[in-house]
Amino acid sequence: MWDKLRRIKGAIFIFFLIVFALYIFSLNYKKHDLDPIQRVVLTLVSPVLSAWSYMVENLKGTLDHYVFLTSVQEENQFLKKQISELEQELVRYKEAYLENQRLRRLLEFKTRLSYDSVAAMVILHDLSGWFQTVLLNKGYKDGVTEDMPVVSYNAVVGRVLQVGPHYSRVMLITDPASAVDVIVQRSRVRGILVGRDLNTCKIKYVKNDMDVRPGDLVITSGKDGVFPRGLRVGVVKATYRDPIKLFQKIDVEPLLNLKDLEEVLVIKFKLRVKHSMKTDINGGFKK
Q1: Which of 159, 189, 188 lies closest to 172 in space, CA to CA?
Q2: With 60 as the cut, is the pLDDT of residue 278 above it?
Q3: Rounded to two decimals, what is the model's pTM?
Q4: Cα–Cα distance measured from residue 216 to residue 251, given in angstroms and rounded to the nearest whole number
Q5: Class level of CATH domain 117-267
Q6: Residue 83, φ and ψ in degrees, nearest 5
């Protein structure tokens, strides 16, 4: 009972306090002096109004701060997205620039060749332990045939092994089944370059007394009927002479990093015996 009376009294007090406040604010006390009642009511109401004003200002500040933080967070997410898009765009531009540089070097090399060639892109690497080949995006409809030599802008890559309408498979010089007739440019020593592993080849059939040294440049001899003469292949890394054996061991590092091939040239070179050559009655040849 007493709690209900206290709540009723409190409500009545607040009601009259609000009424008096409205009464005071309804008066134009800027032009007239306040009467005693107005002063008393204003004195009683001022702390409540100050507290209310303080609470409203704090609430407004909190809301403004929340709205500001929300706006900053949204802006931050937007900027992060823009940075990510710009970084991706930069990667695309860099890739285009690097591809342009590679194609420019390939074009310069193509203009120095004495043979027609087909530019192709590597679309698949098969660098397993058993076979070391790459797949190109050009085939016999582009003029590619088996045994055509494949080069990059600065060295030999391999030879065409299989051909389809729109693709061809190339055996790399590092494949154990590969064989290229080569010479050491400095000493003119000739041998057969065969694949050894992913990063190394070796020259076979070079006698122990032949002059081959680390650092010598190895080029194609042109005598295997597949590769034109004078194409760069690799550099001699080490030689091993065994007095018991007839031939020395020669390790060669290819000039190209064959694992990173992207663009190549297929050279339209294939040594053929002319069909117009006929034998005369003396066993010679005449055209």
Answers
A1: 159
A2: no
A3: 0.62
A4: 11
A5: mainly beta
A6: -60, -45
b/e string for 247-283 if b means 16 or more Cβ within 10 A?
Answer: ebebbbebbbebeebebbbbbebeeeeeeeeeeeeee
- Higher model confidence: residue 104 or residue 156? 156
Q: How many CA atoms lie within 13 A of 35 on its CB side?
A: 6
Q: CB neighbours of 200 closer than 8 A, spacing ≥ 6?
A: 174, 237, 251, 252, 253, 254
Amino acid at 254: P
Q: How far is CA 159 from CA 69, 175, 201, 218, 264, in A?
A: 64, 11, 15, 17, 11
Helix (H, G, I), strand (E, B) or coil at 133: strand
| Separation in Å, CA 270 to CA 33, 79, 135, 147 | 117, 58, 20, 7
Q: In the predicted model, is pLDDT for residue 64 greater than 90? A: no
Cα 106–226–178 angle (5° rounding)?
A: 90
Joined together, the tokens standing for residue 250 give: 């020669």
Copy the structure tokens of residue 203. Answer: 């020259």
Name the token pair of 214. 């680390």
Sign of CA dihedral 191, 161, 172, 137: positive
Residue ranges per structural domain of the chain: 1-25+33-112, 117-267
Q: Would you state the pLDDT for residue 42?
A: 58
Q: Alpha helix locations (H) across 113-182? A: none
